[in-house]
Amino acid sequence: MSKKKYPPYHIYPGTIDSHTHLLHMERKGIDVKSLLEHLKREEFSYILDAGVHENDFENRVALKEHYPDLFFSAGIHPEGAEGDIRARVEVIKEQLKNSSLIAVGEIGLDYYWKDRDPLLQKELFAAQLTLAAETNLPVIIHNREADDDCLELISSAGLPRGGVMHCFSSTKDFARKVLDLDFYISFAGNVTYKNALDIQEAAAYIPRDRILIETDAPYLSPNERRGRPNHPGHLGYTIDFLSNLRHENTEQLINDCRRNFRSLFLFGE
Question: Tag placement on the chain: N or C end, fewer CB within 10 Å?
Fold first, then answer.
């Protein structure tokens, strides 16, 4: 029996992608400029390109000329916890002066890889949380197998705008604690995987006014596109899965996520 084939794009008008990495897509062979033109024709909505280090800022921001509703964040991923952290965070602080920058991130903790120093990760994370508090910007949190430490640092940071737990990969109980901090929770293509039962339980639980969707492209393609580089044109598969899981129609879910994106990142505009 031949494997079922799926179209390369599955897009609903008005969809937002609250977390993606456009330059990483280029490295995977995706023509990002053509992709953005296609998304415009399909009436895709907001896209947020998330930063992971300080070295590619100008190339990222230059892509806005191809997509007006493209926004950016600046931050250093926990995998980059090395070097002169104070000096590197100062670079991020300068980048945040750009008007297209609407969040600090992707920042956080990742304890999956055992060869990375958790103390340095915490130092980097805390410095960037302080930066978010000083600049009155929301944060985009990367959390992998670090629930307790992540929650402790966020709780003590005094964040005026809160933030989002991106690519949620924990439990319903952790989701409840995150929601108690007035955070949003975002789901990527991994929620569609058959063994992602904890993530699916959490996704069914999140209230309508706190949910976001993302690709984390070019990573975490939804189940129908596994084995291929991910991009925002695949979000329809994740939307279909979540709307079925949550017993909501797709239009309602899309509208909720777009409204939540505006509330978190654009002051509700």
Answer: N
DSSP E strands, the chain = 17-20, 47-49, 70-74, 101-110, 139-144, 163-165, 184-187, 211-213
Q: Length of the chain in residues, anyone?
A: 269
Backbone φ, ψ for residue 48 (5° rounding): -115, 115
Task: Give tens-digit pLDDT for 150-165.
Answer: 999 999 999 999 999 9
Res 3 pLDDT > 70:
no
| Position 267 confidence tier, pLDDT thresholds 50, 70, 90 | confident
Rounded Cα distance, 227 and 110, in Å: 24
Contacts of 41 (CB under 8 A, 6+ apart): none
Q: Residue 232: CA atoms inside 13 Å, Cβ hemisphere, count?
A: 31
How many CB atoms within 10 Å of residue 97?
9
Question: What domains lie within the chain, and their CATH numbers?
Answer: 17-265 (3.20.20.140)
**Is the omega angle on the peptide bond into residue 43 within 30 degrees of 0, that is, cis?**
no
d(CA 241, CA 9): 16
Q: Partners of 252 in the beta sheet?
A: none
d(CA 232, CA 44): 9
Report whether 138 contacts 160 (CB < 8 A): no
